[in-house]
Design goal:
Blueprint lengths: L1 H13 L10 E2 L4 E8 L11 H6 L1 H7 L6 E8 L4 H8 L5 E5 H13 L4 E10 L5 E5 L15 E4 L4 H12 L9 E4 L2 H10 L4 E5 L2 H7 L4 E5 L7 E8 H6 L1 H20 L1 H12 L3 H8 L6 E2 L5 H16 L8 H4 L3 H7 L2 H7 L7 E5 L6 E3 L2 H10 L4 E7 L6 E3 L4 E5 L2 E5 L2 H10 L4 E3 L1 H8 L1
Parallel strand pairs: 2-3, 2-4, 7-8, 7-9
Antiparallel strand pairs: 1-2, 4-11, 5-11, 5-12, 6-9, 6-10, 13-14, 13-15, 15-16, 17-18, 17-19
Helix pairs in contact: 3-10, 4-5, 5-13, 10-11, 10-15, 11-12, 17-19
Amino acid sequence: MKHKAIAASLVLLLAPLTACGGSARAGDGSTVTVTVGYQSKTINTVTAGTLLRSLGYFEKQLNSLGDGKTYKVDWQDYATGAPITAQMTAGKIDIGSMGDFPLLINAARGKQLGKPTHLVSVTGYNLRGGLNTIVTAPDSKLASLADLKGKKVSTSIGSAADGTLVRALQRAGIDPDKGIEKLNQQPAVGASALSAGSTDALSQFVAWPGLLAYQGKAKALYDGAQLNLPTFHGVTAREDFAKERPAVLEAFLKAQAEATDYLDEHPVAAAEKVADATGLPAEVVYLYNGAHGISTFGPAIKPQLISALKEDVSVLKSAKLTGDVDVDAFVDDQYVKKALGADYAKRLATAPPASASEVWPKGASKTRAFRTPAELLAYVAEHKSGIRAAYVPDATTGTLWFADKALWVSDGKELLPFVTPAAAQAYVGEHEGARVVPYAAALEQAS
């Protein structure tokens, strides 16, 4: 019955929303409207959505086609990937961006309805899975995944965050279907439920965990990077649109690559632009999208991401959300390869930047990187009133987190940050003399 209820809720989410705009078509033959579905607050899709829109690169690429047509872009903002899929299969959205699990549902739904779609590029990714996090209330006594047994956990069924929750519980020996009471909620609803105490934990994707932690409304319980399985967001396009207007799709992918370069070259300015467009704090955007952020951006479709996508199919099948999905048939990299030319191979080979500790000084247009978390703490201790945000990588997973929200361990002269209490305690248990210390004590020791 639970599976039937979940499936029914998904069908409702995917039902065509007829009130929205139209697909790429020319009314009098000279004007073409291209409809792009994106998720403004899912900030590791910004190079195909929020940031791309603010920079105007897609419109510039379209204007340079020189085919005698006038192009208009209809940007449609959604909270999750499901309604974007509904609009795509109804022929009302041409290009969309969403997470890995929604992408699989997009593929399955498109095939089911005879309206096939294809993954044509990648936006943001984390090769360990750090984009998804399980959080609890700040005063919660829950300290590990084992403590979730029998508890209420909010997530969005069929999302990447749900996939992280399922896998994490399985590794902890908890049945994801019977061991917890799962609440299927939109991210904002789940966040409110956590604050109200009507759920014990929240499993969500970027940028919700970081936002709630920054606001003091949550603390991390489980870092998705502990799974060591890649997670990513990508761009999907309708097959009929791609075949009818390949030059338009290639223009989009060229613009996405330009937006990626802008983000890499101007990470602080990019974070500010996304913050202005979404209402999210720039400090939270930078946590994920910064120079050493949790998310790495690149349009190339990396083999390890496709391998992870194939592994994701079994999770959706077990939840009765999809049947088999032919991932190889869904992936179509011909358009991005043509759009980027010789540059594609270089982007495919690009590795994520090494982890680093960073401080964002107040009023500064650049951040300052430090070799070790202890060096960052020493700087913060001397400039407490001049710090906008400070970020440190988890000592085991490399996941970036706010320095003042991390769990700090003192091990001799070393000061090591961890995203979760369980990770900190695991380290202490393996290192004699190591101990968890408050942030204030860590600052004092560093100074």
